[in-house]
Structure formats: structure tokens, C-alpha cells
């Protein structure tokens, strides 16, 4: 039996059977992991605190036949800003869901671990909506799905203000001339593209200093939602294909 250490953020804690819990963790060392925490649901369990959702904990994990499991754990950070604010808690769930759906199991991404940690810390401070948009665009970049926010993806021309379009399926910004030829291209404000570009590079802690008008916020939310959905569908398709290939006899 192999034991290994990991520092992880608890994304989800579900019932496995009885008092046993199934955890989804995002760890610094191994990326996303699914592990069992046997007995952690008992009120007397010493693991109880460290396995709560949105807790950063140190884990000693053991490899099991089907599922690895928590041998020991200790909580290190509980993000108190999330505990007493429903809006922040809902945003935290959204971040956890994005990490769960977009990351493969067992592939470390140190940048994403730090981004998630800083986002959970930042949710209590300043502008949570803008922080979540910044998280979305940075997550896309860290996982190799960064949208093009400069020149038109079709012809390379830089749009003049008032001529910006965005097409999730084409990978980013499209100029007014190309827009009719690109499926799903929708007009958007130059300001929205400029704020997205800023969010993709700005540090999370400086976000509380910028002001963004409501119309731009709404457009940014919709645009990222489309873009995330497009890549999620692609990911679901490639996973299904992979399962299909793996499932072939002799394959
Ligand atoms: Zn163009």
C-alpha cells in the first residue's frame, strides 16, 4: 500500500455509504482527485472539519484498489468569507464546478491551484462578480482554451470600436467584415473585449479598484458562458470518444 501527501482544496463532499464520504479535491501536487474519506460523516470523526467543501487541507492519502482514501487530514484554511454570505458561497460553488468539469483527474496544474486559492480568498473582498469573470477567463487560459481578444480570428484585422463581434466556436473576436461568414458571431461592445483582455492578465487583488458598467458586465457574463459551454461540449465529446476507444476489445 502506497501513501502520499497532498495539499488540496475540497471542491465537493458527497455521501458514499453511511458515514463514508466521497471527496473531490483539487490538489497542488496531483490536480483533481476523487478520494474516499471513510467514517468522515460521523459527528465524532477527527476528519470532519478538514473535508468540508471549500477548506484547504493537508492530506495523507493511501492508494486503494478502486479508490484512494484519506488516511489522515488536517485543515489549514477555511475561507470564513464564504461561510456567512450566500452569494459568495454560490460563486464558490460555480468555481468548484468549473474546476471539476474542466480538469482531467490526476493532472497537476500549479497555476490553477493558486488561482482557485486566491479566488476563494478574494470572494469576501470587493467585487465578487468581476472576480468570477476573471477566474473564468484565467482558467480557460491555464487549460489552453484562451480566446483571441485582439485581432479578428478569420482575417487578422483589428476591429474599430463599434465593429467588434465575438464567436465562441471560432475562438474569439471577429471583425464586422467577417462576421456574416462566421457562424454564431454576435456583435459586442469594444469595452467588453477590453475588460476581458484586462481580466485575463490582471491580478485578482487589484480588481476591486476598477469600475465596470452593468451593460458590460452582462455582456461579459453571456459571452463567457457561451465560450465555456462550447469548450465543455467539446470536452464531453472527446471524453466520450476516449471511453469508446478504451472500451474496444483489445484497444
Ligand atoms: Zn475579419
Brief digest:
By secondary structure, this protein is α+β, with helices and mostly antiparallel strands. It is built from six helices and eight strands.
Any key phrases for this structure?
251 residues; OB fold (Dihydrolipoamide Acetyltransferase, E2P); 5-stranded mixed barrel; binds zinc ion; 22% strand; 2 domains; alpha+beta
Please render the helix and strand layout as text.
Layout lengths: L2 E15 L2 E8 L3 E7 L18 E7 L5 E10 L2 H4 L2 H17 L7 H13 L5 H15 L22 E3 L4 E3 L11 E2 L2 H12 L12 H34 L4
Parallel strand pairs: 3-5
Antiparallel strand pairs: 1-2, 1-4, 2-3, 4-5, 6-7, 6-8
Give the H and E element order.
Answer: EEEEEHHHHEEEHH
Shape: globular
**Extended strand count:** 8
| Nearest-integer average pLDDT | 92
Low-confidence stretches: none
Beginning-to-end CA distance, first to last residue: 29 Å
Oligomeric state of shown chains: single chain
% residues in beta strands: 15-25%
User: Which ligands occur here?
Assistant: zinc ion
The number of helical segments is: 6
* Gyration radius from CA atoms, angstroms: 21 Å
**Widest sheet, order of strands:** 1-2-3-5-4
Largest sheet: 5 strands, mixed, barrel
Structural class: alpha+beta
Total tally of structural domains = 2
Helix content: 25-40%
Q: Would you mind describing this structure in some detail?
A:
- The chain has 6 helices and 8 strands.
- With 251 residues, the protein is of the alpha+beta class.
- It folds into 2 domains: 3-79, Nucleic acid-binding proteins (OB fold (Dihydrolipoamide Acetyltransferase, E2P), Beta Barrel), CATH 2.40.50; 126-242, no CATH class.
- The strands form 2 sheets. It has a 5-stranded mixed beta barrel.
- The two termini are 29 Å apart.
- The model has no long low-confidence stretch (mean pLDDT 92).
- The chain binds zinc ion (ZN).
Amino acid at each position: 500500500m502506497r501513501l502520499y501527501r497532498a495539499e488540496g482544496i475540497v471542491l465537493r463532499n458527497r455521501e458514499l455509504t453511511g458515514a463514508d464520504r466521497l471527496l473531490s479535491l483539487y490538489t497542488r501536487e496531483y490536480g483533481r482527485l476523487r478520494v474516499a474519506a471513510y467514517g468522515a460523516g460521523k459527528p465524532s470523526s477527527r476528519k470532519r472539519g478538514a473535508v468540508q467543501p471549500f477548506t484547504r487541507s493537508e492530506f495523507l492519502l493511501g492508494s486503494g484498489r478502486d479508490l484512494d482514501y484519506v488516511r489522515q487530514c488536517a485543515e489549514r484554511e477555511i475561507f470564513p468569507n464564504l461561510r456567512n454570505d450566500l452569494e459568495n458561497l454560490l460563486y464558490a460553488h460555480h468555481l468548484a464546478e468549473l474546476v471539476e468539469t474542466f480538469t482531467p483527474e490526476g493532472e497537476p496544474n500549479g497555476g490553477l491551484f493558486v488561482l482557485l486559492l486566491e479566488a476563494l480568498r478574494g470572494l469576501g473582498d470587493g467585487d465578487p462578480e468581476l472576480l468570477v469573470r476573471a477566474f473564468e477567463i484565467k482558467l480557460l487560459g491555464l487549460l489552453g482554451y484562451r480566446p483571441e481578444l485582439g485581432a479578428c480570428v478569420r482575417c487578422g484585422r483589428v476591429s474599430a470600436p463599434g465593429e467588434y463581434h465575438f464567436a465562441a466556436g471560432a475562438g474569439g473576436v471577429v471583425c464586422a467584415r467577417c462576421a456574416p461568414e462566421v457562424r454564431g458571431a454576435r456583435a459586442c461592445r469594444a469595452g467588453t473585449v477590453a475588460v476581458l483582455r484586462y481580466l485575463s492578465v490582471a491580478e485578482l487583488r487589484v480588481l476591486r479598484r476598477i469600475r465596470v458598467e452593468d451593460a458590460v458586465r452582462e455582456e461579459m457574463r453571456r459571452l463567457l458562458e457561451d465560450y465555456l459551454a462550447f469548450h465543455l461540449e467539446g470536452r464531453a465529446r472527446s471524453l466520450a470518444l476516449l471511453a469508446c476507444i478504451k472500451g474496444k476489445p483489445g484497444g
